[in-house]
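Check my protein:
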Amino acid sequence: GGVGGVMRGMRGMRVVLVPGCRVSGDGRASPGLERRVKAAVGVWGQGGMGDGEGKGVGEGLVVCSGAGGEAEAAAEILRAAGVPAGAIRLERRARTTEENARFSAELLQAEGLEPGRLRVVVCSDRWHLARCVYVCGLHFGEVGGVAVDGPVRWRTLLREVMARWVYRWRYRGGRGQDRLQSGG
């Protein structure tokens, strides 16, 4: 799913979510985080990020989620790409994919937004996206995703398969189950 396809299928976007991905010891974004953020810039730059009722916040919000400097590193790339600081939110506690979704929803709720009514586009690696969309579906209204490509290691794929199984078991019957089973 490219950026254009997501925007056509989900008009009136409100929030782009960038789940965390490791950073170097000096706080620089990893290539994986850079790819996710560049995809988010593309979605954000497509416009149409308001709430559909004329109550938008410019081009909408981008939430950078992740502990250990991940959110800050992502925000730095966003600002360098021209996304205004006022459109960027930092969620700094998340250490798992589920926490990315849950803590981002809590952050936006604290700002007076209703997560269950928000439309969210998650930008993550192709191998990680189905799980991201699934867990975001547990916390937000309409959820879509933009997959980014990058190198994949067997260990990463094995971890993802196991994580999907654990998430299906842990959250069985919750909102978003159909999204995980359909692959995104």
Q: What stands out?
A: Residues 98 and 135 are 6 Å apart (CA to CA). The beta strands are 15-18, 61-65, 88-91, 119-125, 142-148. The longest strand covers residues 119-125. The chain has a mean pLDDT of 80.
